[in-house]
Predict the 3D structure of the following.
Amino acid sequence: AAIENPGIFAVLTEKCRQIHKVLQGISGLKKVGESFSPAFHLQLEESTGSREQDVRLLQGIQCMNKNIARTMVCYLKKEEKCLPPPSIRVVVTVEQTEEELERAASTIKEVAQVVLP
């Protein structure tokens, strides 16, 4: 698709910047990743001190009932040399409309405000 439409990268980059900007400043969450990247992570700003509790908090950010898919990142605890903090993976695609991106970001913000202390 990129060979047939080289402008697709510019479109994707703009969509990435858009959602990165909207998701900036969610109380209790920090964005990890570059603004031009179509995949990045949302982590807790402050760990509770318990990985299991951190995972439960992030899992509480359920967006499926609002038609937004939320994916928890899974790591192989015993195989990872340096286990990254728990996070929610956010992925942007070129097919998503600006309205869909805005709705997804708004939903994540809304649910995070309810779930996070």
